[in-house]
Amino acid sequence: MHADLSRDTFRAGRNYSMVLAQQGRVQLDADLNEQAAIQEHRLRTVAADLIGPDGGPRDDAGFAITHVPGEGGAPDDLAIGEGRYYVDGVLIDATRPVPAIAVPDEGAPPEPEDPRPWTWFTQPDGFRDQDRTGDRLPGVYPYLVYLKVWERAVTAVEEPSLREVALGPAMPDTAARIRVVWQVHTVPEAELGLSGDPGPDTVRAALADWASRDDEPRLAARARRPEDTTGDPCLIRPEARFRGRENQLYRVEIHDAGPAAVATFKWSRENGSVVFAVHDVDGAWVELDTLDKVQLSVGEWVEVVDTAYTSRQEPLPLLRVEEVDLPGGRVRLSAEPAAGVGRRPELRPYLRRWDHTAGSPDGVLRVEEGRWLPLEDGVEVYFAAGDFAYATGDSWLIPARTATGDVEWPRDPAGRPLLAEPSGGAVAHAPLAWVTGPGEQTDLRLLFDPLARAVRPAAEEGATKAARPAAKRRTRRTTGDSR
């Protein structure tokens, strides 16, 4: 998650049930975030155990798929039924919000109502264009319609209402948010390895096999004192391996997906949290906000981002800062941003700064497996060699601390850094429908009934009486009351 954090301390394998605050102690963002992560992990685990990999409530299940053939040259579409659904314990909701009604201007005609429900082209996190060939539904039947569910961080740059304006413009934003993203996708029959007339269980198994990665890429990190040490010895201990002057949270993130031969990465010393809202794009010149608060320097790499770019996960080349115009609040980049990103104010465009300075012409670094790769100030990373498929957004977080002159990374008893899978970007999938022709589909969703059932008054009274002594005993054990 791209946010201004000190570190991420939650590990499911530690089996912590809560964070316990102690009096007179400093309270850190990591403690609060770990408490939220513990609760989220528990709730989603319970939901997944009870519901299964995916399912919806029988009386209000969402994501019913209806194929709508195109008419008059319009492309085919899918209607997405309103309601709730769970995927790997994550709650998602396809109910389309009812727009608020504004006070009408005198004499103005009423505004047309938004169509309901969501469709293939209008789904909130799809950002699909009917005129873009790659965004249309497959032209060959049959194919599978499935859900893709993941999460991402949202800050005040994307959602200005998160900022408390009473704190004043000189203050940074406060807390970020985590947003659940759902997207309806398709995959052709042949790509799933299916043929003939497969049954629902066969289709579900094929999707699970297609979406899974047998072996996720692994990375290790360490701090090693560089030979060309130039730090001030009054500020940095001579024996320090991490030579930075400030505590950092390094983020190593995969940019271009694929095997190691084509995969690329980028890194940030502040978890990719340094961003600048974009006001206007004029060729290679980009007008920004708050340029005077966080400097951009010539030679640094930036990524032009907006909500659609983030949701589509289709990476574009990074751009280099060529000139900084502080009085004008703008920067000139090495090239004009791509036509499909950064120009629509409703998509909240911004620049994200990355901190590597060397790289390929498109601003990213090549994944080189089996060797230590230096980042800066003694911090190095190691991509394990293997037949791995890197995915855009795979990331690893590496806290570096001046107090120890080292990075915080798990090690074996001999002190060797351990290889770790990506720490963020978990993605879940669920089948929705098998489309066999125009207007023809088979529903693949799973439904569940509520656990609560109506009982007879007498039985209800008996259950209540039986529960009272047990509840009292539990209260005494919890409070220490031995009476």
Structure, described:
Residues 106-133, 457-483 are annotated as: Disordered. InterPro entries: DUF6519. There is one protein chain. The chain is α+β, with helices and mostly antiparallel strands. It has three domains: 52-100 and 110-214 and 428-448, no CATH class; 219-407, no CATH class; 456-483. Helices cover 13% and strands 28% of the residues. It has four helices and 25 strands. A six-stranded antiparallel beta barrel has the order 12-13-16-15-14-17. The chain has a five-stranded antiparallel β-sheet with strand order 18-11-10-21-22, with no helix packed on it. A hairpin with a 4-residue loop joins β15 and β16. The longest helix has 23 residues, at 29-51. It is globular, with a radius of gyration of 26 Å. The relative contact order is 0.16. The model has no long low-confidence stretch (mean pLDDT 89).
* Number of helical regions: 4
Give the spatial strand order of the biggest sheet: 12-13-16-15-14-17
Quote the beta fraction: 25-35%
Taken from the alpha-carbon principal axes, the silhouette is globular
Strand-pairing-aware structural class: alpha+beta
Give the termini separation.
50 Å
Radius of gyration (CA) equals 26 Å
The ordered string of helix (H) and strand (E) elements is HEEEEEEEEHEEEEEEHEEEEEEEEEEEH
Whole-number count of domains: 3
Approximate helicity band: 10-25%
Please, what is the average pLDDT?
89
Record field, number of beta strands: 25
Which parts are unreliable, with pLDDT below 50 for 5 consecutive residues or more? none
Largest sheet: 6 strands, antiparallel, barrel
Oligomer: single chain
Pfam families: DUF6519 (PF20129)
InterPro entries: DUF6519
